[in-house]
Predict the 3D structure of the following.
Amino acid sequence: MPPVRTAAILAVGSELLTPHRLDTNSLFLSGRLNDIGIDVVSKSVVGDNELALAAAIRHALDAEDLVVTTGGLGPTADDLTREVVAQILGLELVENAEVLESIRRRFERRALHMPDGNRRQAAVPKGAVVLPNPNGTAPGLWIDAGKAILVLLPGPPREMQPMFEADVLPRLLERSGGRRVVRRVVKIAGRPESHVEEIANPIYSPFATADTPIETTILATPGQIELHLSARGSDVAAMERTLESAVEKLAKALAPAVFSVDGKSLEQVVGQQLQARGWKVAVAESCTGGLLGGRLTDVSGSSAWFAGGIVAYENEVKQQLLGVAADVLERHGAVSEPTAVAMADGVRERLAADAGVAITGIAGPTGGTPEKPVGTVVIAVSAGPAVVRTYRFVGDRAMVRQQAVTAAMELLRQTLASQPQQTASR
Amino acid sequence: MPPVRTAAILAVGSELLTPHRLDTNSLFLSGRLNDIGIDVVSKSVVGDNELALAAAIRHALDAEDLVVTTGGLGPTADDLTREVVAQILGLELVENAEVLESIRRRFERRALHMPDGNRRQAAVPKGAVVLPNPNGTAPGLWIDAGKAILVLLPGPPREMQPMFEADVLPRLLERSGGRRVVRRVVKIAGRPESHVEEIANPIYSPFATADTPIETTILATPGQIELHLSARGSDVAAMERTLESAVEKLAKALAPAVFSVDGKSLEQVVGQQLQARGWKVAVAESCTGGLLGGRLTDVSGSSAWFAGGIVAYENEVKQQLLGVAADVLERHGAVSEPTAVAMADGVRERLAADAGVAITGIAGPTGGTPEKPVGTVVIAVSAGPAVVRTYRFVGDRAMVRQQAVTAAMELLRQTLASQPQQTASR
């Protein structure tokens, strides 16, 4: 058995060719295949069209060691993958009694009669291994096509993913030639990508040519950068040691902007900091309209450390509900450091919380001035003496708001990290 | 010139084969090609690999009338599209003085010296039409490859999209054989997909076989359904009449759940309703943590009709900031109709707004009880006598929260729509 090194992924379904839908199964499959050292060399989408599908599968089988298809195994006339594969490989389709019985039972359990169309799902190309589908009617198929392996999986992720884990991964592991991939992720907030690259590059580039080489990918979202490090080889312990050493060096060089090296999100990290202190946080938001509260409460269990918030879009609300003094607003404006501090102090006090975070800014596209252009955002954290910073974010309204939320969470994290752990003083 | 009927889209770049990135350019291209009656038959992603790229382009040119590539036109050694295309089509690459000059000027305008790598971007396969790139250094290329047309576009959307609009679309229109596509979108909130399909199907299925046939696609996101109707042909006036008639019938049958037939989002529709009345809305949120305020303020100019909000995660906050009576919370619980009404009334009053909207619920995964399982959400609108409804949403925490936000906006919309327009009574 030659080892499997390269793969093509083929998503089947006309709906995936419309302007509204993307094939996202390939993200899961690429990740899992990479994990066992298999390179994904191409990804394609092809509609429910016999000739196009046949050509695409043939092309992929010629080019790679492994071809994984998703979709087109359903009961309707549109679903052609099984038949096309049997045809191009010259395999007879035989009705499999066991598969038919399991589909029938699935309908019976719901007190339904099996429609005729579903009978087609029991047709198995001669020599194929049937991959059971506990979450749907369409079984998967594993076909040794000589030079390459062809795996047919159902399209719905909740059927495809468990099937891949249970019945495809173990078979591929036998064929992967013992290669493994180990990964680590370093997450950084509040630094531009170019800045991270400038610092990180001299650190990780020597690792690219080391005995245990490390590959690095930079992923940027508004306000946040992730460095994905991966090592590929057969000596897992050596790969883990090398990665650990690289992660340590990166975390040190990029401190204090590194908020996680263990996969945790910023909201999880902040939640843990607050919980460790027995603290609750409250938020006062202007231009983000509630998105900071929304993100903090993305985490289940956030009620343990999130008190609530005040969205103060109008100046009257800033005065009445947050206690911002009218003369502060008048002298400095709604987007100013004194206002942000007053908002953070105010929300902390009014909600009887241990920490207060405030965001006020100009998300755009209108409302900018020469001194305070669109993208100007002021963030304050009140937990002891207030910490306040002014930012100039670039991008459209949505990007400015996203960056503001991430920056506020990062300023809260750094403020909490720089203070000795203590119990609430409220 | 034979008309162009079918297309393949090919995205080039190894980063698009990782588990982190999807090719989204194809969504834009599919939409625009469909608009002029060209069917996208396949989409592929291929890495920065000479052989794989050559095989993929050859395969696509054999199969379709038009092949559009995105990416791989940059200045680095990884960028291979131009060279590979010249090779497989047997075309000589010639440095184009005009292109070189325009790249050089681009650097000069920024007081930068042109790096050597960028010189490659001026190489043009003999006979190709150069498509100018006002937003970057890589020009696009239009190549008549005999049986098929090959169009090479840069990868960054802000370079690719304007180039497509200015220089590709007009050329394709000359080759599209006069076919056009006209579209309409009907947007519906708060109805399950199966319910919409049951009502809509008898209405639009006769149109599928009419003289001017209509194709229909249903797109579902949590809490919201979109019906996309499109007609394809050469008689634009007839297509518009047919679509108008279908949209009217659907809007009538699905009323009052249809919130837009002109492309507007729910937040835009609600904003317009409020502005027409000179009203401001305030929100009180519990389980959504600020997401309703966040979504309402997605729209630029929302300060004209959004006052602010209170995120009342803790019961103390519900009492102190929203004035919810302790005995209401005690007798009925935080997730109850009386509490929701008190929250909506409270936020309306405290923020001196004309309308108040409240959300309280159990987003999960924990916190459910037999009487109030995870997914139970109560929404109240206070604008005159309070309107309140209890929902049971299905899905994970993020899905429950999204559906709650959409349902709250829809309940606000219906409440406003059912009231005569009047000026604020505050």
